[in-house]
Design goal:
- The chain has twelve helices and three strands.
């Protein structure tokens, strides 16, 4: 009996041991497979999950007629599902307009600095005289400075909006720049329509004097007297000033029209027109800024006596003879040149003198 029990016990031990080995074998096999699969999945960069609507949007993007669908919403572009032009406009703005435009502005600024170091300030060769000529009335000077102040404000705020992110955010941070950019946007939109008023005022007042005349082309060919040592004849405005006037009127009109399209999206214009208006507005503004930079240079450090006419209303006689000799000769022949002392008395609002009466008779 004992022998029989021992034999059964041994048999059960062998069965148990065999079962344990089989269990361990079966248990270890899926672990190795999972380990290999996990190892392979770790080496994969990502898991590709297909978008079930990919084919739908691919068909929409390739649809003829500008991806226009049917919608119950009434408005401009309400039925457009995908506007591919928007991405092209964004790339043009970020990859071409901003870097190329910024390079042009910096390049012009550097060239003006180099030109000043080489040429220096253009002096009045005969020196300042003791006589002056009346050049601009108070109203004309007010219009000039009104246009100048509006343009400078719009130029500064516009440049901040166009170049602010890559230039100012590293310097002042995103929070401060967001406040500045928001203020520039509101100020730019608010003051923009005033530029229309300024351009109309300056056109009405100065258009008669900016008609091209005989001799203007010779002024251009000689570079305004910079090329060579001879004085270039000129009238009240030379060809450079006349060209800047017409550039302000024509390009300024483009800037105004495109700006109105951007500020007032109520004319039925779609996104394509808005994108085109943005490009025209930016390119026109950059062109005007480059020209005005040269104008500011001449009126400040570039030429002696150039700014006096717009600050006092009078210009030096020798300066006028060197830069606007035709006009200066006519004024002197009419006997309308006055002494420096008389001009100072007029600026101090002293009692009427013979000089003041003479100017009043001529409508000055």
């Amino acid at each position: 009996m004992i022998y029989k029990r021992e034999r059964i016990s041994r048999r059960m031990g062998r069965i148990s041991f065999t079962g344990l080995l089989v269990f361990l074998l079966l248990y270890s096999l899926p672990l190795e497979i999972v380990a290999e699969e996990t190892k392979g999945s770790r080496e994969m960069p990502s898991v590709m999950v297909l978008n079930p609507a990919a084919e739908l949007w691919r068909d929409v993007r390739q649809r003829e007629g500008g991806n226009i669908g049917i919608s119950q919403v009434r408005g401009v572009d309400s039925g457009v599902l995908i506007n591919a032009n928007g991405d092209r406009w964004r790339k043009f703005r970020m990859e071409q307009l901003i870097p190329i435009g910024g390079s042009i502005l910096v390049g012009v600024f550097v060239l003006l600095g180099i030109f000043y170091m080489v040429r220096g300030k253009v002096p009045i060769e005969g020196g300042q005289s003791d006589r002056k000529l009346f050049r601009y009335s108070t109203y004309e000077r007010m219009i000039h400075w009104f246009v100048a102040s509006i343009f400078l404000f719009l130029a500064i705020t516009g440049l901040i909006l166009l170049f602010g992110r890559p230039v100012l955010i590293p310097l002042m941070g995103k929070e401060a720049f967001s406040v500045l950019a928001s203020a520039c946007k509101e100020g730019h939109n608010l003051m923009g329509p005033l530029f229309l008023v300024a351009v109309v005022l300056i056109f009405v007042r100065f258009v008669r004097r900016n008609i091209y005349q005989k001799g203007d082309l010779s002024w251009l060919l000689r570079g305004g007297g910079i090329i060579g040592n001879k004085h270039v004849p000129s009238n009240f405005f030379n060809m450079g000033e006349k060209s800047m006037f017409w550039l302000l009127i024509l390009v300024g009109s483009l800037i105004i029209a495109s700006g109105l399209v951007l500020v007032f999206p109520l004319f039925g214009q779609g996104r394509e027109w808005m994108e085109l208006a943005h490009v025209a507005h930016a390119l026109g503004a950059l062109l005007m800024i480059v020209v005005i930079m040269g104008h500011i240079y001449i009126g400040s450090v570039g030429m002696e006596g150039a700014l006096e006419g717009m600050t006092t209303g009078y210009c030096d006689l020798n300066w006028a003879k060197e830069h606007h000799d035709h006009w200066a000769t006519e004024v002197v022949e009419r006997g309308e040149d006055v002494s420096n002392e008389a001009v100072e008395r007029l600026r101090r609002n002293e009692p009427p003198s013979s000089v003041q009466l003479h100017l009043q008779e001529h409508g000055k």
